Amino acid sequence: MKKFLTLAFGLSLGFLASCATENEPILPKNGDTPAVEPNKEELKNPLYKGALLLNEGNFGTSIGGSLDVISEDGKDYTDNIFEATNGHKLGKTTQDLFVEDNRVYVISQKGEDFLTILNLQDYKEIKSYKKAVLPRLKTPHNVAVLNKLVYILDIGAYDANWQLQGGAIYTLDTKNIHQDGGFKKVEGSENVAKGRMVVLNGKVYALDKQGAVLEIEGNKVITTKSFDLPIVEMSKSYDGHIWMLASKDKGAIINYDPKSDAEVRHELKTKEVDGLSTGKWGAPAIHFSATQDTIYFANGPKIYRHIFKAEKNELFVDVLSKEENAIMLYNGLAVDPSNGYVYFSSIKGYPEYKTNNTVIFSKDKELISNHKNLSEFPAGIYPLAKFQN
Description:
Largest sheet: 5 strands, mixed
Number of helices: 2
Shape: globular
Strand content: 35-45%
Radius of gyration: 20 Å
Strand order of the largest sheet: 1-5-4-3-32
CATH class of one domain: Mainly Beta
CATH superfamily of one domain: YVTN repeat-like/Quinoprotein amine dehydrogenase
């Protein structure tokens, strides 16, 4: 159901018109440590419950991105919470978000604000970074954060032959943006591919255009790990490893341990995953999500799952059997590790994008909720429990 946010807290809508607008923390111009930090006691969990749904907005129009909130039980849906709280849109063509230390980092491709940081407690904007502060970014696509060092994956720009050129990963030190050297290119990241990054054991992992895994420490790629199958998507595993989805002539699920360089691989041999095994998957659509030893993947409106320890594939649910308009999966397959809820976001089609659904199932295939016509070209669904340390 659609909930309209009641603003019981006072808002301040006077934003600074500098290259970096600020509410909290306050960053002195001399580049010192922020003078005001969020109260750690006030920001204690339980904040990491439920899910965030990030909307791209309608590409090529003046409509900006937006952020929606889904309650822990999946029943309540609060749309456009950022604009209701802050009085303006959340960037334009928003693509990805990451949560660390009770802060939400949102990356946008268009408009003036490339990066926006907001407080997970009340969704107030803490800080936004404009193009003038991040001049080398062409088309930001993904974001990850490690100890307030923000990793921004930029896919570059299209050349005359519609090939992406000039992509790389950059880091932004959000502790000290006014200090020289706060925005740096990650050495060796020029061949990076679009896709969500993984933060694990003090390092960041991304994919290159050949499907190899880049291991990043600080501002440098320290290792490139290649597999015999190209990796198309990754997700942090519950055991401190990385789940990987591989695809070419056949599909595979890989549990990879970067520390020992060991892997356990299960090939997906069933006809139900033809869309995966013929290489039709991968960025920009998000078709893969994992919790514990169960991996969910979607081929159109059908959701399958692979139970890793049992090495078993099964049809989880055909969403069309529950919702006739859930025709096109659009950047939205996610599973909440805290309760096993599976999220699926769809549109009826590009011309009929306003007919959309966010459908939630229990791990036992029970339909929990079907939120209708509230999203706008979802960029992704983000269960908050996935960001718990």
